[in-house]
Amino acid sequence: MKKDTPVVHHLKDYQTPQFDIVSVFLEFDLKPENTNVTNVMQVKNLNHASLMQLDGEDLELKSILIDGVDITQKCEQTAETLQIPTAGLDTFELNITTSVDPQGNTALEGLYRTSGNYCTQCEAEGFRKITYFLDRPDVLTLFTTKIIADKADNSVLLSNGNLIESGELENNRHYAVWQDPFKKPCYLFALVAGNLECVQDTYRTLDNRDIDLRIYVEPKNIDKCDHAMASLIKSMKWDEERFGLIYDLDIYMIVAVDDFNMGAMENKGLNVFNSKFVLAKPETATDVDYEGIEAVIGHEYFHNWTGNRVTCRDWFQLTLKEGLTVFRDQEFTADMLSPAVKRIEDVKRLRSNQFPEDAGPMSHPIQPQSYIEMNNFYTMTVYEKGAEVVRLYHSLLGEDGFRKGMDLYFERHDGQAVTVEDFRNAMADANNVDLVQMHQWYLQSGTPVLSVKTEYDSVTKKLIVNCSQNIPKLADKFPPLLMPIKIALYSDDGNILPLHPYEGDMEKIVVKGHEAILKLSHKSESFVFEKIEVEPVVSLLRGFSAPVILEYDQSNEDLAKLVTFDSDSFVRWESIQTLALKEITRNIAQLESGQALELSNEFTTAFEGVLKDSSLDNALRALALTLPEMTYIGEQYQQVNVDAVYHVHRWLKIQLATKYEGLFLEQYLQLNKLNEEYHYQKTDIANRKLKNVCLQYLMLLPHQIKLGEQQFNHSQNMTDVLAALDSLSHTDSLEREACLESFYRKWKDDALVLDKWFALQAASHHIHSLAHVKELVKHPDFVYTNPNRVRSVLGVFGRLNMLGFHQPDGEGYHFLAEQIMKLDAINPQVSARIVAPFTHWQHFDGERQTLMKKALQSILDNDNLSKDTYEIVSKSLSLS
Ligand code: B3K
Ligand code: ZN
User: Fold this and answer.
1) The domain that contains 411 carries what CATH number?
2) Active site residue 300
3) CA distance 374 to 713
4) Would the keyword Zinc turn up in this protein's UniProt record (predicted)?
5) What whole-number percentage of the chain has pLDDT above 90?
6) Residue 878 structural domain
7) pTM value surpassing 0.85
8) Residue 778 shares a structural domain with residue 843
């Protein structure tokens, strides 16, 4: 067990800063193992405090001067702080010199080395690993940064803002000075130095300024930047058009690095990216990679306003910038590709990842109330549920009202560090409405359950929609949430019906065309529609208008009808998913009671309908033909029977493949154009998606394995090559071995492509998959210091390899726990993420629960466990 119990930070303890750091001058003398950092701050003592406590970790202190006088001996240093006497000083210059070891920094937080270059990562609290500072987001400072380094190894020296000076020095060294004209919190500081090359372009802003755009990469990757640059330009244009937000500096730089703990970082004017979200060419990157790059480039760019110009008062407000920026990047991707497809993909992600998080021991509100390690709270909840909550404002206020709210938010708070209440107030005041109830969404954790019952009276022609909301784990002890529920009504033959709310309900039902929003604000509430001439087919929670679990007992006939005619793509997709889910759960029950499995006509008719309906967008068809993920099926049970879920899921896929082999093959052959040039373009993406879904089904039939091998050998783009290899990886065939081997030989020197090779095997349903994964961590190309490689093996194994991880003898758990302990000593942030699958132990059968807890305990028993991993593991076990 970790020796000292780590400190818990609480939102309720927030206090305004005692000091203002008006400006800072930083000088870095870069050397791999011993970089000197001189930090000269102009400080204002706002409350005549007699002591200034700065944050600092893993720093070697050299000297401290106040107004030129050495006071080093008068200061107190602890492992995480430095206390400086400031009695009688109102304004002063504080000069601190420290040194750090970038080469030895494998945690990848603060200043570190990657592929022989220098880079930084400061959010959330990494700046304190660079120098002593008030490392909190509400201290905004003007930064000037001087970088000195060897010329041979560091042709490029970068920091935030504008380059104001550069020159040569003795001993083959050189320097550059950067000045950022915008005040910023230190988490947005960045420094990069190394031998990098850049691609350049220009963007002319709406107010006619030319912005210098640069993407820096290692020279070998210079041919893989075009898509990233195009994405940046699209993002800049989109933010001007949609939100009237224009870029502010004269230069925007992106640097791609191979070793990075997350996706990317929005440092002011100098984004640092995981190379996975920059580098792409058709031979190496899939459609999913291309889409990811566009989305992440957009996300970081959008942070320039939502995050940088207006930032967070404290880290409990993280969703203020992240939820809002995810909402913005979702809207961007929707506009670039397909709004319908994007919405469905986002809902799938939310349900498969955020819902389980919110049902487990790490469940927290989008505004957490406490944390041990802030990095553990960059979660699906803060990001994705946070984005859903922003979407609620959008649904309630409409596009124009939302835009008015955003405009007022920037007008009031540009240059400030604010709270989620400030955002809500801007939305409310701009629209002259009361949104106080929205705050419950920030306070409550757990996924709300929305139960709906509809009653139609054929005599009065009235439809009553009875809604009630509940958060099961809070029993009845919660104030109700405000939920916009989108609804439309159809006749049996698919005609959309006009909506006439009952007069007394006009306030809480907003009708727009043929769709209405029911504004549910009580625990139970009824909404009445009149003049409904026929018993309607109800299309409910259109566009997934609130992040809830919907309980609405709809007949299979109605679901099948919605699959064929609903104009809302989400409900159309959701209806076939519900039919599939019913099919699967019914058969799981059959299996558990020792009865034969059987396919129902209701489901296959709907499935066949989609398979044959060429009028439907191919991307939507691909989504509709994909069965619910195993994790989502598992979510339907208090305690999941892993083996039964796997068995029935596979059985159903094989049944469908067998029954519709001819149709799948016909569709596959029609779409399989091997020599066509790759374009990242909506229709092409949709076609590849549908083709590869067909291939997945076909490959379940042993005599069709050759089809995958052919696609693997003859495709020119990574989307198709990987789809084929993925299907092959689940088989027990010679083709599998041959293709994996040839893929490795071809791509062993391209780290991002090799990650895919590792990931496929880590997720494989092959019978010997656990043994294979154990071999993978011994592979010469497996390194614990590279987060992408670790995630592609250990992350994927825990999350996606249901059979291997949950092997009944507990060997999968034992293996992963050992790996986590090894990793924790190297990179705690990554290790804490890999623990996640263990945290759902209470969701499995008794024997597995015991084994999972045993594995967690073995991690906790570790003497030097990081606080990152400690927080997740201890919270998981405290439930027992
Ligand atoms: N703001 C960063 C995430 C920082 C994570 C710190 N552990 C990237 C993003 O959300 O845009
Ligand atoms: Zn973000």
Assistant:
1) 1.10.390.10
2) yes
3) 46
4) yes
5) 98
6) 748-880
7) yes
8) yes
